[in-house]
Amino acid sequence: MKKRFSTGLVYFAIVLMVCGTARAASPTDTIRKPLDSAIEILGDPKYQADDPGLKAEQRDKIWDLVGGSFDFTEVSRRALARNWKSFSAEEQKAFATVFAKMLGNIYVERIQSGFAGQKVEFTDEILHESKPLAIVKTFIIDDQTKIPVDYSLKKMNDQWRVYDVKVEGVSLIKNYRTQFNDILRKEKPAQLIERLKTKVAEQEAAANKG
User: What does the pLDDT read at residue 117?
Assistant: First the structure.
């Protein structure tokens, strides 16, 4: 079971990174349309060589795809839950910026090492009856596994943005919410932000070493 969940996280990373910028598209189109471009980048033979410079180039291209499709302020607000209000406006902005960078580094690295031609199957789009919210249900499929991945989206300024992803029922937001709650019981918002900045610096140093 543990091995299956780890595999699911890799597959989650694949789809997390292939979401592109939404342009008044449907929730499903927000995820589906950039998929071909991202898969092309992941499978491009140019990036198969063990070259840190090329891997960095690939990483940047993938991040360009994902950066505009997530509402990282909403992701951050929900991840911090009630603690969000204890952050000043400046701290909220700083937290959202560094949290987005940390997530990007984690999952781009995972898809670079874990992508092996998996396919995405879109199964359903569920719109909330009264709120600008939606869920897009998908499966990540390879020869041996079929992993459910659900996207939660919110419509803002006529654009759908992703604010949570569930892999096999496990929520990205809830996972980090627990960690952040534990830290903020003992530390101030500024200390948590510094923790994330340190983590990002470590990620970038490791990536630059190849």
Answer: 74
C-alpha–C-alpha distance, residues 16 and 107, integer Å: 8
| Cα dist from 56 to 89, 98, 198, 210, whole Å | 32, 19, 20, 9
Separation of alpha carbons 92 and 11, rounded Å: 30
> Max CA-CA distance within the chain?
50
Tokens of 204: 């970038």
**Two tokens, residue 31:** 């995820």
Tokens of residue 95, six digits: 């937290």
What is the per-residue pLDDT across 73-96, written as a single tens digit (0 to 9) for each? 999 999 999 999 999 999 999 999
Cα gap 108→104, rounded to integer Å: 6
| CB of 137 closer than 8 Å to CB of 150 | yes
Rounded to whole angstroms, the Cα distance separating 113 from 202 reads 18
Listed in sequence order, the residues at least 6 apart from 70 whose beta carbon sits closer than 8 Å to its beta carbon are: 19, 100, 161, 162, 163
187's tokens: 């530390």
Which segment of 46-50, 62-66, 150-154, 201-205 scores lowest on mean pLDDT?
Answer: 62-66
DSSP string for residues in 162-193: EEEEEETTEEHHHHHHHHHHHHHTTS-HHHHH
Contact 19, 161 (CB under 8 A): no
